[in-house]
Amino acid sequence: MSDLAILMPCPSGASAPYATPFGDAHVQERVLGGRALALIEPGDDPRAGPWAARALGATRLAIVCTGAALNRLLRPLDWLLPDDYVDQTRGGPTTYFTERGLGYVQQSPAFCPELRAALAAMPERPDARVFDRGTLVAAPAPRPETPAEARWWRGLGGDVAAWGAQPAAALARELELCVAVACYVVRAAGAADDAWLEAPEVERLLAALVAALPAARGCACGEALAAARARGALEMDWWKVLSV
Ligand SMILES: [Zn+2]
């Protein structure tokens, strides 16, 4: 059982397929700083990763992704921990409550303040600054954004454009998980140069997160669907109904 799960595209090291009602996710279980972690590589369906986190016992989900800087103050190798987002994804599943009308979860704040604070404990380096607020534009596809998209999303108030954070984060909120995003800037938006998410940087982030995260949750994320449960629309463990 891991109370903390990390959703990221390609964790280093071997991972094993983990069956979910939405296809396989891939999971690598680790112990770091005495804490059990589940590193989860999302499946093709964005519902698979958050569901796997919940099924593994996680109460918190940190999403690690790469992004392109829309804000000209950001530069490659910086980390941005967004406190808000604009969702530009389209066409994919956006809720676990298809045809049930229950996937109504407050999005203010958009991410868990407690989990964001723990991510922000990562020490800065001259070449890897940490910004603890900003707006993430969730890109609709993994391809790089065009210059016109970069201009448009900058006009929407975005600081960074990234693929993979949504709809996973909103889905995780439906599972009453704490969720926050750590975005590693790999290029300026609309530019051709590119870089990879560096494994040592991820390890640095995880070590700081594990050290800073309180053992017990002090936030309201675990009650995101309390109103639906209180009126009898949801069972306590409703998500198990979706089991494999
Ligand atoms: Zn929370």
Structural description of this entry:
- The chain has helices spanning 48-55, 113-119, 147-155, 168-174, 199-212, 226-230, and strands at 4-7, 16-18, 25-32, 35-41, 60-69, 79-80, 84-87, 130-131, 135-138, 160-162, 178-188.
- The protein is built from six helices and eleven strands.
- Helices cover 20% and strands 24% of the residues.
- It starts with a strand and ends in a 14-residue tail after the last helix.
- It is α/β, with parallel strands linked by helices and 244 residues long.
- Strands 1, 2, 3, 4, 5, 6, 7, 8, 9, 10 and 11 form an eleven-stranded mixed beta sheet that branches.
- The site of zinc ion has 7 residues, from helix 2.
Brief summary:
This protein is an alpha/beta fold and 244 residues long.
Quaternary state of the chains: single chain
What composes the largest sheet? 11 strands, mixed
* Helix and strand composition category: alpha/beta
Order of helices and strands: EEEEHEEEHEEHEHEHH
Percent of residues in beta strands?
Answer: 15-25%
Q: Give helix % range.
A: 10-25%
Which kinds of small molecule does this entry bind, naming each only once?
A: zinc ion
Distance between the termini: 18 Å
Enumerate how many helices there are, as a single number.
6
Number of strands: 11
Outline the low-pLDDT stretches: none
Give the integer mean of the pLDDT values.
91
Topology:
Elements: E1 4-7, E2 16-18, E3 25-32, E4 35-41, H1 48-55, E5 60-69, E6 79-80, E7 84-87, H2 113-119, E8 130-131, E9 135-138, H3 147-155, E10 160-162, H4 168-174, E11 178-188, H5 199-212, H6 226-230
Parallel strand pairs: 1-4, 1-5, 5-11, 6-8, 7-9, 9-10
Antiparallel strand pairs: 2-3, 3-4, 5-10, 6-11
Helix pairs in contact: 1-4, 2-5
The structure holds zinc ion.
Residues 112, 114-115, 178, 217, 219, 221 line the site of zinc ion (ZN).
